[in-house]
Amino acid sequence: xxxxxxxxxxxxxxxxxxxxxxxxxxxxxxxxxxxxxxxxxxxxxxxxxxxxxxxxxxxxxxxxxxxxxxxxxxxxxxxxxxxxxxxxxxxxxxxxxxxxxxxxxxxxxxxxxxxxxxxxxxxxxxxxxxxxxxxxxxxxxxxxxxxxxxxxxxxxxxxxxxxxxxxxxxxxxxxxxxxxxxxxxxxxxxxxxxxxxxxxxxxxxxxxxxxxxxxxxxxxxxxxxxxxxxxxxxxxxxxxxxxxxxxxxxxxxxxxxxxxxxxxxxxx
Length: 268
Fold this sequence. Notes:
Blueprint: H1 4-23, E1 26-28, E2 35-39, H2 42-49, H3 51-85, H4 88-99, H5 106-117, H6 127-132, H7 140-165, H8 168-176, H9 181-209, H10 214-218, H11 225-233, H12 238-261
Antiparallel strand pairs: 1-2
């Protein structure tokens, strides 16, 4: 049975979300610049049919997916080492060490990555340029790497838990049947880790998709859907900004449905 505080939180959250969606159908008064009570589909038409905005949404999804894939690629070997190879006394320390970045300020971490990707110039450039003689600079690569760094702990913890839950008997049986390391990982370990990976991806994908600050810090001229929402809201044009928010809301609804079928919610 749902407790009173939880029920109240759900009501407030869903109520706010309903008001946000409803405001997308209001017309903006051209003279006062404020929303009116007149209903219109013009905002949705502009947000969903304009080619430039659709391209921006696709770009945002690809960046979020790339950041999530980067987190998965790093989390799998790291979590495997901690859960299966590290000494028992070191496991907890390694997990804490890898989640400590969550305690640091968001902007501190973003600007730290900016200092790393700073291209060469009058000030000599950032870490990569100074040490390796070159840097990809600000753009897609810097944005994806920064987002992956920011949200990596949210992927690591579910994957690490998934490795911890793997029965040793299955791995021993795979080895006894002649399967090598890669075959064991592909046929035994990875299928059992899919729910854990899906659970972690919910956080990394959603947080990356909705981010609009990181891309301003390290993205250069790169834009994501969050930047358009911010700019439209400050215009100010709240109904159109609300219409733009329907893009990430719709994407996340579909994403959550797919992840639920992969068993993600059992591992949250």
